[in-house]
Specification:
Blueprint lengths: L4 H15 L19 H14 L3 E5 L4 H11 L4 E4 L14 E4 L14 E4 L3 E3 L4 E5 L8 H5 L3 E7 L3 E2 L2 H5 L8 E4 L4 E3 L5 E3 L6 E7 L3
Parallel strand pairs: 1-12, 2-3, 2-4, 4-7, 5-8, 7-12
Antiparallel strand pairs: 5-6, 6-9, 10-11
Amino acid sequence: MTATARETVLRRVRDALSLSDGPAVTVPRAYRTGRSLPDEERLALFVDRLVDYRAQVRTCTAATTAAVLAEVLREHGAQKIGIPPGLDPAWLAGYDGETVTDSADVPAPRLDVLDGVVTASAVSCAETGTIFLDGAAADQGRRALTLVPDLHLCVVDLSSVRTGVPEAVAQLTPEHPITLISGPSATSDIELERVEGVHGPRTLAVVIRTDR
């Protein structure tokens, strides 16, 4: 007698449940690790991936950080920006607009009055163009700060850029709230029409410091 679709599904569910009482299964996790590229190649790969995600990218040195950040903010007309409490104040020495230091006491809707936000970053992956933010770090701030304003200006030290995902993830603390950023927030409808800024910043600007 041919089994019905319902009987087949139920049998598979029963079989799966019976397997749960069996011995533990070891999942192999022999990820390829230890990959490393020279600084120039790692930078070129990272920039290529960021641009492919439609992020705006600039590079600077430690000495020119403040000037470049001020120029980017001026280009976007950012007159009022939010910053996490631990951001290096020297980075905004050239900025002549208003800065608002964020805290957990500020309701998320009030962040919508900001023209943008400036944060540091924890680690990045060159291969995927992904930036990782650690919500427990004082210079990166809480997740809401980087999701509500329309512009996110993120500073990345080239020394924190790893070649691949395993190398980048290894630098993170799993217990911390981690945000992964790959370009500006975007989504597509059934017609594949891309819309940016739906679930987060419409614009992602990345300033890569090539030295400390």
